[in-house]
Amino acid sequence: MPSSADLTAIFAAAAVDIERAVVGREHPVVLIDGRSGAGKSTLAGLVATRLDATLLALDSVYPGWDGLAAGAHQVLTGVLAPRAAGRGGVWHRWDWAAETTAESHTVPVDRALVIEGSGLLTPASRALSDVQVWLESPESSRRPRALRRDGDAYRPHWDRWAAQEETHVRAHDPLSLAGIVVSVP
Candidates 2.60.120.10, 1.20.1250.20, 3.40.50.300, 3.50.50.60; correct CATH number of 4-18+27-183? Predict the structure, then answer.
């Protein structure tokens, strides 16, 4: 298992690479995808800070434990497509405790945008973004990180979520769609 210092260095270097990739782009859109526990949220936070960007985490959008594809689709149609047409987007927060859709949030078109989440990088989302990132990490590292982060709330859902991630990977091959691949041990 890599040390936290090793992971910090990997994510810092990746954030610099992403920042370089958006130089000269006005209000860029950065997509960060990877399987659970790969470090998407950590990297996205660094990148959003460096770009002074709006940050959207699909964990706030997925409609429940079986909603990986639906959450990604909501962001595609509600945020990315309107933004590509020059309009702000809207997404609806999922209330995990109440198991229902909650309030809506607007995403401005006149600011950089970083979106992170499993299932995000597809041919359709790639076409509506400027930089696409895939985090590659083995399950033997990802699972302990994810369960340490989310604990018992996630443990009973790991396998069903992983199956949805596998479906996404087989259907869309996000690794091949990414302009930047970050290897996270």
Answer: 3.40.50.300
